[in-house]
Amino acid sequence: MSLSPIVIKVGGALLEDEQAALSLLTSVGEVMKTRPVIIVHGGGPLVETLMAALNLPSQKIDGLRVTPDEHMPYICGTLAGSANKSLCAFAIRSGLTPVGLSLLDGGMVSCEPLDEKYGAVGVPAANDPTLLKSLTSQSLLPVVSSIGSSDSGRLLNINADQAATVIAQLVDGELLLLSNVKGVLDGNKQLIAELNQQQIDSLVDDGVITDGMKVKTDAALLAAASLGRPVTIASWDANINTILNKDTGTRVAP
Ligand SMILES: Nc1ncnc2c1ncn2[C@@H]1O[C@H](COP(=O)(O)OP(=O)(O)O)[C@@H](O)[C@H]1O
Ligand SMILES: CC(=O)N[C@@H](CCC(=O)OP(=O)(O)O)C(=O)O
Question: Could you list the residue ranges that cross the membrane (predicted)?
């Protein structure tokens, strides 16, 4: 396999849509016949559900979850535990052989705290691709959650779009950020096929790109610049080959 790997980020809401998850993983299996694939996943909605059940208030600032260290056992249990294993189980049902991992495994990504106002939220940086390359060379499917660690061993919660960006940097991969929307929508809710930094800035200024999509377009711009190739924001309902053929989704230019 000489083509560059595809890094597919899926938002946590996918885990609540069995048909969409199985159909996406079936199309991942097709792509894996010719190119390595690495999945990075979120789990925001699962975290919300657990925190509400535990009566622990959880708030986001600029799309990032404020995470006191004492919340980390729940966040870690949800993202690296139930979300990761549910996605691996969907992959097994789809005939694939997943290996569930977190950012901190095999020294692949190093993380540092962002700012104490966010608590245990980290900024990830690409470190060592050896483990991922070894897995993909054996036709295994790495499924990576966005839990990281600082060098001093503090567990950190990383936004999954940022996690996927560093994994794409690590393996020089093509990045697809898949979510529950067709891509970036304009003020009239129409799909925008291509965007550059200037256009994104003006959509943010106009209040058209907000919340989680702002985090996503920031991650896409950073990734596109560092990879030197466009990053795609699209729906997980679309076939991967349709997305790779640029027939749907939004391409964010470097
Ligand atoms: N301009 C926009 N186009 C599309 N979605 C947008 C836009 N602005 C804000 N959003 C919101 O961003 C959401 C996607 O971000 P997020 O919920 O964080 O996704 P994920 O959990 O898959 O990473 C959409 O469901 C939508 O509610
Ligand atoms: C720091 C931070 O915001 N972490 C995210 C990690 C999960 C995530 O990003 O999940 P989605 O992709 O489903 O939104 C969180 O706690 O929700």
Answer: none
Q: What are the C-alpha distances in Å from 187 to residues 197, 207, 214?
A: 17, 9, 14
Are 147 and 104 in contact by the 8 Å Cβ rule? The answer is yes
Q: Is the pLDDT of residue 1 over 70?
A: no
1 belongs to a structural domain? no
| Tokens 């070894």 sit on residue | 134
Per DSSP, 239 falls in state: -
Q: What confidence category does residue 48 fall into, taking pLDDT thresholds of 50, 70 and 90?
A: very high
CATH code for position 30:
3.40.1160.10
Q: Say how far apart CA 157 and CA 147 lie, in whole Å.
A: 5
Question: What phi-psi label fits residue 55: left (phi over 0), alpha (psi between -120 and 50 degrees) or beta?
Answer: left
Q: Which of 40, 192, 206, 211, when mutated, tests ligand 1's pocket best, judged by the most ligand atoms within 8 Å of its CB? A: 211
Containing structural domain, residue 207: 6-252
pLDDT at residue 148 is higher than 70: yes
Ligand 1 centroid–CA 212 distance in Å is 5
For the chain, the average pLDDT equals 95
As annotated, the active-site residues are 9, 12, 44, 161, 216
Nearest CA to 136 out of 252, 21, 35, 208 is that of 35
Pocket of ligand 2 (CB under 6 A): 11-12, 42-44, 47, 64-65, 75, 79, 121, 146, 157-160, 212
Cβ–ligand 1 distance for 251 under 6 Å, the answer no
